[in-house]
Amino acid sequence: MNFIPNIKNALLFIILIAGHFLFAQVDKNTTSETINLYNNLKEISKKNILFGHQHALEYGHGWSNETDRSDVKSVTGSHPAVIGIDFSGFSGQSKDEIEKTKEVLRKNVVATYERGGITTVSWHFINPASGGGFYWKDSISVPAMSLIKAGGSHHEQYKEILKTIADFAHSVKGKNGTLAPMIFRPYHEFDGDWFWWGKKYTSREDFIAVWQFTVSYLKDTLGVHNFIYAFSPDNRFNSETEYLERYPGDDFVDLFGMDDYGDFGRDGKYDLKAGVKKLKIISDTAIKKDKLAAFTETGLESITNKTWWTETLLKTLKSENLKLAYVLVWRNDASSPTHYYAPFPEQISVPDFMKFYNNSFTLFENNLENIYTKKFKIK
Q1: Closest by alpha carbon to 225, among 164, 170, 171?
Q2: pTM confidence score
């Protein structure tokens, strides 16, 4: 019998599988550190989940701009595994203010990278065509997605804003000269009506066109190769079809996410069954498309439920065999006595949060070793 054709076919299959594993991401020229992070996040999601906190290092409950401090670290001894930052200050400001913002965030991202933590980036994009900031404000805001797409009146301005983002992405280098990978999550909660890019003000076609241009321009023209691209609506979907209604395509998304406060205690209302169903949709979609999934935003403002961490969040995350890389709760405002989503010393949920922290399922920064290499392991 002639086994050579079978051997050739087997080798070809192995090469194809290896290539698929290596280049599962949107950017085929992505850095090795970003590839390793992507693959390690996928492995983590099989048995564990990372905990994240927005703006954790920049400020917290009653403090701001203190080196190596976070409220989560003050409670547990470890920073969150995932640190959220925002590109909001990269436009709509003076050049000097933009440069100051970039420098603060650069130090933040590099420090997180050097410690072995992970950065995720939201973008509360200030409307480039009107006043009103990033929120939609009647009689002030204009629906700008149609204006910033290719051929629109503000397209060239949008390209300059993306260049500011690209310049930042090229600047976040660790001591060894490698670039820090970041999970970039633009145009989040796009199914709502509170942001100017929301569904009420943007056609499906314009949303997809802007998303596709953004990803292509960053990676192909501006040479950004350290981004993992995350797609995250709010919780206004009940099926995969609804979830993917504005999906820009497999070539433009690395990670499926969801922001959901409404099912997890906002205004005292809980619908955990609905929350789990939606998380199951994004988890299953990610598995089907060989991509990542994450609970990209949630939380209970003021954490008035002292067992929220174990009885609400942890039970949800461990149900239905969900495959989620991380869960991120929102920020702790430095000045507001009530706007916080992670505990700080003596907050009423601290004992329960420590149970959440000590659970073998949840991972914090001090549990990660070599997350940006093929030698990654959980401590």
Answers
A1: 170
A2: 0.94
Domain of 29? Answer: 4-378
The kind and range of the H/E element at 378 are strand 377-378
Q: Which amino acid is at 272?
A: L
Average pLDDT over residues 186-211: 98
Known binding residue 217? Answer is no
How many angstroms separate the CA atoms of 284 and 289, rounded?
9
Q: Where are the alpha helices (DSSP H) in 116-230?
A: 145-148, 155-171, 204-216
Residue 3 CB partners (closer than 8 Å, separation 6+): none
Active site residue ranges: 189, 297
| Residue 194 marked in a binding site | yes
**Which pLDDT tens digit goes with each residue over 152-190?**
999 999 999 999 999 999 999 999 999 999 999 999 999
Report the chain's C-alpha Rg in angstroms.
Answer: 21
Sign of CA dihedral 360, 364, 368, 371: positive
Q: Confidence band (pLDDT; 50, 70, 90) for 20?
A: very low
CATH of the domain at 221: 3.20.20.80
- 19 pLDDT tier (thresholds 50, 70, 90): very low
Q: Would the annotation count 124 as a binding residue? A: yes
Rounded alpha-carbon distances, angstroms, from residue 175 to 116, 152, 179, 319 = 13, 41, 10, 40
Percentage of residues of the chain with pLDDT beyond 70: 94
User: CA nearest 277: which of 236, 239, 326, 233?
Assistant: 239
